[in-house]
Amino acid sequence: MSDSVDVAIVGGGIIGLACACRARQAGLSVTLLERERTGEGTSHVAAGMLAPVAEVEFGEAGRRVLDLGLRSAGMWPQFGAELEARTGLAVGLRRTGTLVVARDEDEARELERQLVFRESLGLRAERLLPSAARELEPALTPTIRLALHAPEDHSVDPRLVLEALRQACELEGVAVREHTPVASVEQDGERITGVVLESGERIDAGQVVLAAGAWTSELGLPAEASIPVRPVKGQILRLGDPTGPGLLTKVVRFHGGYLVPRGDGRYVLGATVEERGHDMHPTAGGVYELLRDAHELVPGIEELRIEELSVGLRPSTPDNTPVIGPGGLEGLVWATGHHRNGILLAPLTAELVTSTLTGTMVLS
Ligand SMILES: Cc1cc2nc3c(=O)[nH]c(=O)nc-3n(C[C@H](O)[C@H](O)[C@H](O)COP(=O)(O)OP(=O)(O)OC[C@H]3O[C@@H](n4cnc5c(N)ncnc54)[C@H](O)[C@@H]3O)c2cc1C
Predict the structure, then answer these.
(1) Who's near 162: CB < 8 A, 6+ residues apart?
(2) In angstroms, what is the span from residue 342 Cα to ligand 1's centroid?
């Protein structure tokens, strides 16, 4: 059996779903192929920070991710509002800002360096003494040394976003095919012609978008069109306060982790960063480190209930920057390698991929 579409998208995480939705809105016929169920890969595990300022790293690659991150963060309010209006579902965008907190002298010195770096880039980041930080977040331990406030770094609930995106795709007329693993990408000389499913079925497509996250490298592309994407393991806890919201309001980040309040008494505590291939097992050591570090900063977390422990694999390129846009073969489009920022970068990725697909790409 053979089918023919303008675009086949491999992978139904936040990136594949967002690209599918936008491409369909641009008038293309789109089939999205997901080997399991949409929205149950890494995107399902993510904390949902939209934090280009708190995340920025030194160096060329860090600057590139910052540039993409700032552009995408600026798109989030409209992206979220459009999704909510189209589907009637909330996406949980919380404009709370982020506090980055130093626990000891070493961390305080590093935070001073980070502040100077952010100032040099013209980013909004305020230096807060412990008393001022504790006025904003009284649950912080009195022994903190320094804090950085990034008032424009917010958060969203990825699970709500995934559900809304999935519904938006269906409303727009994307053919969403779950439990449909793609075995390989088909080519004729230098040109992509479609994909072959593990079932043997062939889908002819004018263009193919690779959004298979940490599994993208398994799609068996020829070397000239292949970008190495490796999995970077992250363990993450979901906690709940039986007494309701109020322990923390803002996202709180610290060396080795973060706490993201959902605003209703639920908190996400993440995340380890481990080079362990495709290993998805949670470990006692990972959970211990997360709880130890968070407890040092916010002692009140000991009253929270553990609701979930999960593991995700960040799709990461050698320099941890995403690959978005035309690939090494005609008709091949990359949308992967989002590493720690796939939720943040979803709106921008969808725009860039759609511009590539429609031939209106203007990439700086
Ligand atoms: C612990 C943790 C916390 C994070 N926190 C944040 C955060 O706060 N903010 C942020 O911006 N980012 C965060 N991230 C990063 C973010 O989760 C990822 O960058 C993002 O989810 C990647 O999305 P994706 O759609 O590329 O991948 P995925 O969500 O993994 O989707 C890929 C999909 O492709 C499917 N697939 C794979 N192979 C095939 C195949 N052969 N055929 C068909 N389908 C296939 C998979 O089943 C999967 O559903 C976090 C990541 C982790 C692990």
Answers:
(1) 13, 14, 17, 38, 39, 43, 44
(2) 7
Whether a cis peptide bond, with omega within 30° of 0, leads into 271 is yes
Query: Is any ligand 1 atom within 6 A of the Cβ of residue 46?
Result: yes
Q: Does ligand 1 have an atom closer than 6 angstroms to the CB of 48? A: yes
How many angstroms separate the alpha carbon of residue 136 from the centre of ligand 1? 32
The predicted structure's pLDDT at residue 361: 60
Counting from 1 in the atom list of ligand 1, the atom nearest the Cα of 155 is 8
pLDDT of res. 363: 47
Is the domain of 163 the same as that of 309?
A: no
CATH code of the domain containing 146: 3.30.9.10
Rounded to the nearest angstrom, the gap between the alpha carbon of residue 26 and the centroid of all alpha carbons in its chain is 24
pLDDT digits (tens, 9 = 90+) for 60-78: 999 999 999 999 999 999 9
Q: Which atom of ligand 1 is nearest to the CA of 43?
A: 21
Together in a domain, 31 and 171: yes
Domain for residue 364, yes or no? Answer: no
Question: Domain total for the chain?
Answer: 2
**One domain, residues 37 and 131:** no
Per-residue pLDDT averaged across 317-337, rounded?
95
Pair 275, 233: CB distance under 8 Å:
yes
In the predicted structure, residue 282 carries a pLDDT above the cut 70: yes
Parent domain of 184? 2-56+159-228+318-358
